[in-house]
Amino acid sequence: MPPPRSRSRSRSVRRPPAARPRAAATPRASAARPTALDDRFFRQIVAGMRNGVLAIFRDGRLALINDEAYRIFGLARQPGDLGRPFAEVLRDQADIVRVLSSVFDLTTLPNRAELRLKGSQRVIGYTLSLVRDEAEQVTGAALFFKDLTRVEQIEERERLRDRLAAVGEMAAAIAHEVKNPLAGIEVMAGVLRRQMDDASEAHTVLGDIITEAKMANAIVQEVLEFVRPIRLQVDRTTIGAAVDAAVTFAENKSRRGEVAVEVSVPPNLPDLHADYYQLTQLFTNLLTNAFEALGGQGRVRIAARAVHLDHGAPDAAPREAVVVEIADDGPGMSAELIDRVFNPFFTTKPQGSGLGLAIVRKIVDAHDGRIDLESAPGRGTTVRVTLPVTGDDHDVHQ
Ligand SMILES: Nc1ncnc2c1ncn2[C@@H]1O[C@H](COP(=O)(O)OP(=O)(O)OP(=O)(O)O)[C@@H](O)[C@H]1O
Ligand SMILES: [Mg+2]
């Protein structure tokens, strides 16, 4: 039987580090390297971690918080933060305060739980643990967390892609089947109409049949276009030009009426490596929705600006991007509506196909961008499209 391990060789993490200075020393450790897990070394580990780390004492004072935690919370480090009640330092992060406030009362602590931070909409994955002293008394709690926003977006995109693939296959099959009979109806109605007396009631009815068949055919074409995978023709694309073309297209597609359109695209915006035609379609669909929502009265504002995207990864360089906002002061949308509007074929309009926003999302995804909707009943709708200046090659998928 092997001899019982001497306690002095144990590397329990709960032991105060200063009391066992040689615990981690290896025979090969040179004099220049740290030879002990001293306090400073522990602090450096925490400071350099790519996870957010935050610890509180039992009485609610903040014991430790690293740079990544500040970054994720969007806070600037203040000299007096440590030692202050954590609820004060994190007062803008109500969810985190709630999680930490209950930590000493819970019997099971959350492990790899997820949380969406209200203000920033960042998603974090977090684990809570208790800090105990040598006598197993709880002296504090620690929160370890990681910014999952980017991971979430990728997962969401994949989920949508799967869903679109399934819906798309079925829609494409139906559209193909319907295309030929529809064309037949249109042609035969035309033949019949030519044989009718211009003034007859049948002539008018046949005219209506042809119009309806044409409309159904347009929907079929839209469906087929939607399910076809996007092949980007990437070129230097000026946002201003795509937006201007989209305003004209949208005016032709739907009734603008008295709606005031205000375009503010600064001339010094960087050009995008993007598909001009697709971007024009993207903005056309958004503007068409805005015009339709306004019903001939109101205002649409289109504003673009350059931004630097934060990757959600502390060591990745920020990425240049352009944000285009299309805001209308129309009726807005409820939260339930917002959840569904990107679904293919979801529409609240009698003549809508419900593909406008699904196509928008597809184009945004193909450009590795993102789209956010801000809307509330009676408060108008703002759609924010963020497009990276360069394509996927600069991307960091974690
Ligand atoms: N700016 C907006 N204001 C209010 N509601 C909107 C706005 N944009 C979209 N919606 C809602 O989202 C739904 C889906 O929009 P989407 O563009 O995908 O389809 P659609 O406009 O109904 O039909 P299609 O664009 O295919 O003709 C709309 O039916 C409408 O209810
Ligand atoms: Mg639409």
What distinguishing features does this structure have?
Heat Shock Protein 90; binds adenosine-5'-triphosphate; 398 residues; 5-stranded mixed beta sheet; binds magnesium ion; elongated; 39% helix; disordered N terminus; Helix Hairpins; Beta-Lactamase; alpha+beta; 3 domains
Detailed description of the structure:
Helix 5 (149-195) packs antiparallel against helix 6, helix 7 packs across helix 8 and helix 8 packs antiparallel against helix 10 (356-366). The protein has 398 residues and is α+β, with helices and mostly antiparallel strands. A hairpin with a 4-residue loop joins strand 1 and strand 2. The model is unreliable at 1-31 and 392-398 (pLDDT under 50). The chain has ten helices and twelve strands. 39% of the residues lie in helices and 20% in strands. The strands form three sheets. It has a five-stranded antiparallel sheet with strand order 2-1-5-4-3. It has a five-stranded mixed sheet with strand order 7-9-10-12-11, covered by helices on one side. The longest helix is centred in the middle third of the chain and has 47 residues, at 149-195. 25% of the residues are buried. The chain binds adenosine-5'-triphosphate and magnesium ion. Adenosine-5'-triphosphate (ATP) binds at residues 285, 289-290, 293, 328, 330-331, 333, 341, 346-349, 352-358, 381.
Tell me which CATH architecture of the largest domain applies here.
Answer: 2-Layer Sandwich
What fraction of the residues are assigned to beta strands by DSSP?
15-25%
State the name of the first-level CATH class of the largest domain. Alpha Beta
Largest sheet, if any? 5 strands, antiparallel
Quick check: average pLDDT?
Answer: 85
Query: What small molecules does this complex bind?
Result: adenosine-5'-triphosphate, magnesium ion
The CATH homologous superfamily of the largest domain is named Histidine kinase-like ATPase, C-terminal domain
SS-based structural class?
Answer: alpha+beta
> What count of domains describes the coordinates?
3
Overall geometry comes to elongated
